[in-house]
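Support request, please re-run this one:
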Amino acid sequence: MILPVSYTINLEFDKTKVWSILSKREHLNLFHPFCKKNIAYSWNKKSREDSLEYLNGVKLHRNFFEWNEGSGFKLIIGRKDGKKSKVIWEVKGEKNTTVKITVYPHILSGKNKLIYLFAYMFVIRPGLKKYLKSVLLGLEWYLKNQKPIPNNQFGSHKWFSLAD
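Re-run finished. Output below.
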């Protein structure tokens, strides 16, 4: 039982502009408020693969397994040899664009269902919602300001920021 967590933002930018940012090589360096480094290993029509290093030093590998030009992508993210989570980015609209991120977290998957449900409701879901909201607000911030987002622009995150 793996329950997804989603967050959606409505942007006052046209879809072409939004997609031009999301489809860019190493795009997380521009708008992800908890990103220390986003490095692409492969970024072409046949293969897209990169890594994300968070402000606290955690490094995750991203492998894009579905690319829908102009409307979104799907990827698997996790430690190189560890468990992976599935992430879906959806981009809809024309003049005003809606961007939705859905994460199917691996955390505690395969464990006792009651423990998982408790952890999901009180730890995983709220933590991921806060994270996804910050990432999408970061995208909006970048679109408005046209410069890389400052670290922790919308507050720190206990999973990905440096300890306060």
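The CA atoms of residues 21 and 27 lie 6 Å apart. The chain has three helices and seven strands.
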